[in-house]
Amino acid sequence: MRETIHYKVDGHLKIIDDLGQVLVDKHNAVHPQNMARVISRSLSNENNFFIHAMAFGNGGTIVDAAFTITYRTPNDGQLPDTAAWESRLYNETYREIVDDSNINIGEGEGSDSSGDPPSVEHVSGPGVRSTEIGLTSEVEIEVVLNPGEPSSQFLTDDQSPAEATESDFTFDEIGLYTTGLPNVATSGFQDVNVGDKLDVDDTGLAPSTLFDFEITVDGGSTQSITITTPVSGSGSGGEILYSDIIPL
Question: What average pLDDT is seen over the chain?
């Protein structure tokens, strides 16, 4: 009987266009701390243990005046990234739900999933599925980006001159995310006193907006947090309630 088993997780990224041409086929960084937590939560049947969304951003490279491209190191919780388990993309601009057991598979702010192929849960199409290959198991996450996604981008084929097509929807970084922490996280949580407000009260925050907060707890050091409010809240008119910002 083996008392110790060493596991290896290898990330790989493959991008294919509509003609079937392979545009990218290379290894992709893995966040070791967060991957270990996901595996541990899965074995413990705790919340937040499966891949929920794929996110895209445009902060992975720096282009100077001479058009020299500098590739930034991935935010994988290892130096120079000091964010540990809170690591994120440098600048996320779009994401889609990839959990094919979710009724909102293929959806995200600015998405148009009408052109997606059919998704058969854990079998084919957009979604997440696993395959056993001897002692190795492979997890495949598939996302389809349609020509109109994200919405409000330039219509590339119709723009002139060509420079007009260079917009913020040029992706150079990709990341996978779980659903996020539940209202009571298994890794611990803090209560922040917001006065006499209840979880059903309106925060007054605008939807689909990035907010920066500074919080000091019991005279301790100031902690800076950033949240992005959802497209619509749980209020009767879509208002963002206090209960909506707990998991953010």
Answer: 81
